[in-house]
Amino acid sequence: MARLTMGMAFVGIVAVVALVQSAAAQTVHVVGDSPGWTVPGNGAQAYTNWAAQRTFVVGDTLVFNFQTDQHDVLQVPKASFDACSSSNPIGDILNTGPANITLDSTGEHYYICTIGQHCQRGQKLAITVSTSSSDSPTPAPPSPTSGTPAMGFFVSLWLSILGIAMGFVF
Q: Would you state the pLDDT for residue 132?
């Protein structure tokens, strides 16, 4: 009975670790950092610079921090983004701040504020969303001999710990 309880506890711990790693894989991006989603003093370049410093992947969340009734967020196609037009919206306008948007597709995503002249004054964001943070070019894999002994050691160690936890000795 003790072995069964110990084994179940181990499986539970492994499941929790897997969930934590999965949750940690998504990133929450606060648009504009501390100033939030507002009309930037230096125009659209502020959000262009902000986006250039980040990698956006499917599953990430954008948080648009703004005061309700002073700003809003609308996803639009590129032509509407360039023209600061709310025609052809993608989804509904989000007018209650803060607004959270989960990135659910790859490609170019465009967001504007539709209040007054905010978009024309630079309150607009363009980002590129990829399937994973490793979509960028990756270095060549290591040669077959490098890293192999260490990997074998960790696999053996993991199997030993698993065996002990399950009440067996390998």
A: 74
